[in-house]
C-alpha cells in the first residue's frame, strides 16, 4: 500500500488530491497550517470533505515546524503543495513571509527527503507567476522565466532549489507548472469564486484591467491527475506545464458564468493590478507525451461544477 505525504492538504488542490489518493487506496499523511491570507473556514470545509478516513492522518502545522522525521516516516511519495499564495499580497515587507514559506520551507523538505530512500517529490509551481506575461503562441517548458511579482520570484526560486537537489543528490523531484486552476473549493480570493459570488447576489463584478487578458484554465481534477501521473512516470528534474484545452479571455469567462446563472453581468473595470500576467497559454505536449496527461474537463462543464459546489454550500 502506498503511503503519501501531502503538504497543503487542506487547500484547494491539496484537498482534492488527498481525496483521490484515499480513493485509490493510499495511506495519506496531511500537513496544513492556517494563515491570515487563506480563508480558514474554507480550509475547515475542505477537511470536512475529506472526512475522518481511517487512512488519513492530519497534522495542523506549518512546514517550518520541521517535524519531517515524524511526517516522512515510511512515506513512498511526497506531494508538496504547501505555499504562501497570492500575487497582490506579496509586495513590500510581506515578501519575507513568501521567502520563508515558498523557498526555505521547500528547501527544508528536500533536505529531509535525502534521509529517505529517495521518494518521488512532486512540487506545485505556478505558470503565470514564473513565466510572467507570455508572448507568441503557446508557452513550452523551455521558455525563459520572467516573473513579474515577488510571489513569482519565490516560485521560480523554489524551482531552482529543487533542481539543485536533483543535480547534487539525484533526488527525484518533479515540478508541475499549473495554469490557473479552478473548480470546487477554489480559494475565496480567486477570480472565479469572487465572480460567481457577486453574480449570485446580483452585485457588480470588479475586473482588474479591461477584461481582455487571457488565461489557460485547468480544472482541479485534471491538476490532480497530473500529480498522480508525475509520481509514476516523471524523471528527476522534469518540469511539466499543466493546462486546460484552450485559452479564454476573462470577459468571455465572465459572460459564460452569467449565462449559467441567467444573468447579465454588471462590470466595473479597475486599473491593472501590478504583477498580473496579461496572457497565459500552455503547451502541454511534454506532459501529454511523457505522462499521458490530457485535460478532460472543458471550461463550461468545470464552471457548472464549481457553481453547483457554491450553491450546495449555501444550502448548508
From TrEMBL:
Residues 4-243 form the NAD-dependent epimerase/dehydratase domain. Belongs to the NAD(P)-dependent epimerase/dehydratase family. This is NAD-dependent epimerase/dehydratase family protein. It holds the Pfam family Epimerase. InterPro entries: Epimerase_deHydtase, NAD(P)-bd_dom_sf.
Amino acid at each position: 500500500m502506498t503511503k503519501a505525504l501531502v503538504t497543503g492538504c487542506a487547500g484547494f488542490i491539496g484537498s482534492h488530491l488527498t481525496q483521490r489518493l484515499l480513493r485509490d487506496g493510499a495511506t495519506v499523511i496531511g500537513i496544513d497550517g492556517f494563515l491570515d491570507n487563506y480563508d480558514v473556514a474554507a480550509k475547515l470545509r475542505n477537511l470536512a470533505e475529506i472526512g475522518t478516513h481511517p487512512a488519513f492522518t492530519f497534522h495542523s502545522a506549518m512546514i517550518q515546524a520541521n517535524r519531517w522525521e515524524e511526517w516522512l516516516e515510511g512515506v513512498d511519495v511526497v506531494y508538496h503543495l504547501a505555499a504562501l499564495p497570492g500575487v497582490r499580497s506579496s509586495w513590500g515587507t510581506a515578501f519575507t513571509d513568501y521567502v520563508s514559506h515558498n523557498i526555505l520551507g521547500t528547501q527544508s523538505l528536500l533536505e529531509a527527503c535525502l534521509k529517505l530512500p529517495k521518494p518521488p517529490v512532486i512540487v506545485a509551481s505556478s505558470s503565470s507567476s514564473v513565466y510572467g506575461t507570455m508572448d507568441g503562441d503557446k508557452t513550452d517548458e523551455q521558455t525563459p522565466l520572467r516573473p513579474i511579482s515577488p510571489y513569482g520570484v519565490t516560485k521560480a526560486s523554489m524551482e531552482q532549489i529543487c533542481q539543485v537537489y536533483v543535480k547534487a543528490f539525484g533526488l527525484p523531484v518533479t515540478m508541475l507548472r499549473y495554469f490557473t486552476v479552478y473548480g470546487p473549493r477554489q480559494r475565496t480570493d480567486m477570480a472565479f469564486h469572487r465572480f460567481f459570488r457577486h453574480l449570485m447576489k446580483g452585485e457588480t463584478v470588479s475586473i482588474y484591467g479591461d477584461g481582455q487578458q487571457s488565461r489557460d484554465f485547468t480544472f482541479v481534477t485534471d491538476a490532480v491527475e497530473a500529480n498522480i501521473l508525475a509520481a509514476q512516470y516523471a524523471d528527476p528534474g522534469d518540469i511539466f506545464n499543466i493546462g486546460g484545452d484552450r485559452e479564454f479571455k476573462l470577459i468571455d469567462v465572465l459572460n459564460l458564468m452569467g449565462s449559467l446563472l441567467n444573468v447579465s453581468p454588471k462590470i466595473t473595470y479597475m486599473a491593472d493590478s501590478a504583477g498580473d500576467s496579461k496572457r497565459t497559454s500552455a503547451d502541454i505536449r511534454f506532459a501529454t507525451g511523457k505522462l499521458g496527461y490530457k485535460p478532460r474537463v472543458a471550461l463550461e462543464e468545470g464552471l457548472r461544477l464549481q457553481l453547483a459546489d457554491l450553491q450546495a454550500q449555501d444550502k448548508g
